[in-house]
Amino acid sequence: MERSAQRLGRALVVIVDDRAAHGEVDDTAGPLVTELLEEAGFIVDGTVVVHADTVAIRNALNTAVIGGADLVITVGGTGVSPRDVTPDATAGVLDRPIPGIGEALRSSGLAAGAVDAGISRGLVGVSGSTLVVNLAGSRSAVRDGMATLSALVPHVIDELSGLNES
């Protein structure tokens, strides 16, 4: 996601974590994603922490889309346990999926030795003019995922804003 001093747009981070939503643990992924997004040139509107609940996740995503975010990164809830519902909630919000980016995230995670990347059901797609990306919840998954996204996200955002029209 590297460009000179040019801003890539507005981003919102959605953390899906029951314990953080209850205040039982501090959210450590949100500050990391925010830092990486800001380094890449995004203005981060904030971090929202929600329960692993389809309605709560969908509401957070819809609020970001309606609010004009260019990018929404969700963190957590992408696995196969019954509480991992982020992809299910995301599917209900997406207008157009971008499966290649989700596959790239899983592939790079596996290549980096993150076995849990292979069971991630995370989705990537477009809702309105907002790019929505599901990342797994570990800090290593966040770092790896953001590195994988670095070359892809600026191109998608340019496409969505009409800057890359043929």
From TrEMBL:
Domain of life per record: Bacteria
Protein name from the UniProt record: MogA/MoaB family molybdenum cofactor biosynthesis protein
Keywords (A to Z) from UniProt: Molybdenum cofactor biosynthesis
Pathway linked to the protein: Cofactor biosynthesis; molybdopterin biosynthesis
Keyword Transferase applies: no
Matching Gene3D superfamilies: MoaB/Mog-like domain
Listed CDD domains: MogA_MoaB
Entry keyword Transmembrane helix: no
Organism classification: Bacteria, Bacillati, Actinomycetota, Actinomycetes, Pseudonocardiales
Pfam families assigned to the protein according to its UniProt record, in alphabetical order: MoCF_biosynth
GO BP term, pick one: Mo-molybdopterin cofactor biosynthetic process
SUPFAM superfamilies xrefs: Molybdenum cofactor biosynthesis proteins
Start and end residues of each MoaB/Mog domain: 12-156
